[in-house]
Write a structure and sequence with these properties.
This is DUF1876 domain-containing protein. InterPro entries: Rv2632c-like, Rv2632c-like_sf. This protein is α+β, with helices and mostly antiparallel strands. Helix content is about 35%, strand content about 30%. The chain has a three-stranded antiparallel beta sheet with strand order 1-2-3. Strand 1 and strand 2 form a beta hairpin. It is elongated, with a radius of gyration of 17 Å. About 10% of the residues are buried.
Length: about 90
């Protein structure tokens, strides 16, 4: 089976105090890019675990990215068919 296209997703993390931020970027086969952000806040009484903050912030950024990709896909379906499509909420 041949690969038709590949997507490249980048995640970058920063931490300032109790806040971890994730910036996500995906480059799609049509040349467009979608960007998203996610955040995690650590309670001051929680132990410092950078990995956990990265996982939460990264997951939230990827969820935002997925939502934007669904919106893009459904806008393209609507344009091609002239009808309103309804994304499934999983």
């Amino acid at each position: 089976m041949a690969t038709l296209v590949g997507w490249h997703v980048e995640l970058e993390f920063t931490e300032e105090g109790h806040r971890t931020s994730a910036a996500a970027l995906v480059r799609l086969g049509d040349g467009s890019e979608i960007k998203a952000r996610g955040y995690a806040l650590r309670h001051p009484s929680d132990p410092e675990q950078l990995r956990v903050g990265e996982e939460i912030a990264g997951a939230r950024a990827l969820m935002d990215l997925a939502s934007q990709m669904l919106q893009k896909a459904h806008a393209e379906i609507d344009e091609a068919t002239g009808r309103h499509s309804y994304p499934l909420n999983g």
